[in-house]
Design brief:
Number of domains: 1
Number of strands: 0
Helix content: over 70%
Order of helices and strands: HHH
Number of helices: 3
């Protein structure tokens, strides 16, 4: 099961990348867009981390913690997708 740790690492590094790009940017609209992309990566990280922990330990406690991580990951991912769509449209209107 090398796929889950790979996805976890990629999502974590993309989260760090977008947070660094957020600090570098001066435009508030671009910062909000980068923050929404970071939320998507954080949601992906937490979601797959919860799955990986359950598959690694396979106990009842890890199942409950994994379910909590899955729910939190889905919420972060959905919030990131919604705000990313919104700010992408606003950014395209701003540039035009």
């Amino acid at each position: 099961m090398i796929i889950f740790p790979t996805i976890i690492l990629i999502a974590f590094f993309l989260y760090i990348y977008y947070k660094v790009m957020l600090v570098k940017s001066r435009d508030p609209l671009q910062q909000a867009y980068m923050n929404s992309k970071a939320k998507i990566c954080l949601g992906t990280f937490v979601f797959f981390f919860g799955i990986n922990q359950y598959l690694f330990y396979e106990t009842r406690l890890s199942l409950f913690i994994g379910i909590i991580f899955l729910i939190l990951g889905i919420f972060q991912f959905r919030l990131g997708i919604k705000s990313s769509r919104h700010y992408r449209n606003e950014y395209s209107k701003h540039r035009a």
